[in-house]
Each structure stands twice: as C-alpha cells, then as structure tokens.
Amino acid sequence: MKIDEALSGVSWLFLDTAPVVYFVEENPDFLPIVRIIFDRIENAALMGSVGPVTLAECLVMPYRTGDVNGQRGFTELLIPN
Description:
This protein is mostly helical. The chain has one domain. It is built from five helices and two strands. Strands 1-2 form a two-stranded parallel sheet. The longest helix is centred in the C-terminal third of the chain and has 14 residues, at 52-65. The radius of gyration is 13 Å and the shape is globular.
C-alpha cells in the first residue's frame, strides 16, 4: 500500500517519534515518505499532533550532544506558535 492510499480519508494523525526524527534529520531512507505527511499537515490537508513524550524523545540526542540547532528544529516543529 502506498502512502497516498494509506492516508485516504484520514483527517487527523498522531505522530510518533520516529517520523518526526526522520523529517527533521532528513533521513534519506524515510524522508520521501514522511515529507508527504508533513506537506499535508503544512497545507492543512491533514491535522497532525504529537504528545509531550514525543517531544521529549526527540530532544534527547540534541541535548546530549549540545546541538542547539537540532533542539530548535524539533521545538519549532512540534510546539505551535
């Protein structure tokens, strides 16, 4: 099943940690798939949400390594303005 078929009729999607990390870090193996999801969210064709655990999990490595840009990238993506 292709991602377009899987998202057919879906209006709201809860995102786990992995797809968020793949998108922010531009993982070459998964970026083509998760980009479709994030593009739909950006264009308001799909509502995406995450829980506080996802944000915490996404921030572990950037905090551990002192990657301020990584911290900012996850925070800006996951916390609404």
